[in-house]
Write a structure and sequence with these properties.
The chain contains four helices and eight strands; from the N terminus they run E-H-E-E-E-E-H-E-H-E-H-E. The protein is of the alpha/beta class and about 210 residues long.
Length: about 210
């Protein structure tokens, strides 16, 4: 019997891997590690960015703006991204190398065109819950391990929300890759996570 823990596989999707629309450097290198460790977990949850074409985080939906510009969107600071992970497209699918046979729950986020969703637990307004916290609590799970893409965005915000919501939270550092935009954002994210009592470990420490 596993202890009551959960693995959160964050956004291991084609568009975030090499050749994708918003590639994370070496994003596909996390896949063999994630596949290898899945049998250590009581529950496995995989998230997908699942955006409509008219999502307001896409630079193309703001004439005169370009990718990586920052705007204010409904009172929230928003980085503008290239079009990526559009619902139902090949880019939004899980990378074909990722073993999803053991995944218990697929959680899709970012489908409200007015607001981005980095975290698996909450949209960027910090008010709208995805339901993941309640799902875990109903199963008496209080320990979560995060891996996937990207260290300094969706993994980072998911980890911060996990610990804030009362879960014992671990980051599997070798099973994550980051964007590092702006420069040093990976290191800054790791520093913040350590400060918030998120434990940063390697997969071989499981």
């Amino acid at each position: 019997m596993h202890e009551l823990n959960a693995l959160l596989i964050i956004d291991v999707q084609n568009d975030f891997c090499p050749e994708g629309k918003l590639p994370v450097k070496d994003g596909d290198k996390v896949i063999p590690i994630i596949n290898r460790i899945q049998n250590r977990f009581y529950r496995i949850i995989a998230t997908q960015d699942w955006h409509p074409e008219n999502h307001l985080s896409f630079a193309k939906n703001h004439p005169g703006k370009k990718v990586y510009d920052t705007i204010e969107l409904n009172g929230i600071k928003q980085t503008l991204w290239p079009v990526h992970c559009v619902a139902g497209t090949e880019g939004a699918r899980f990378h074909p190398g990722l073993n999803t046979n053991s995944v218990h729950l697929i959680l899709r986020k970012g489908f409200n065109p007015q607001i981005d969703s980095y975290s698996a637990f909450m949209e960027n307004d910090k008010k709208t819950h995805t339901g993941l916290a309640n799902y875990l609590r109903e199963l008496n799970i209080n320990k979560v391990y995060l891996c996937g893409l990207a260290t300094d965005y969706c993994v980072f915000y998911s980890a911060l929300d996990a610990v804030k919501l009362g879960f014992e939270t671990y980051l599997l550092i070798d099973a994550c890759r980051g964007v590092d935009f702006p420069e040093n954002s990976i290191n800054n994210a790791l520093t913040t996570m350590r400060r918030r009592n998120i434990k940063i470990i390697n997969s071989h420490e499981l």
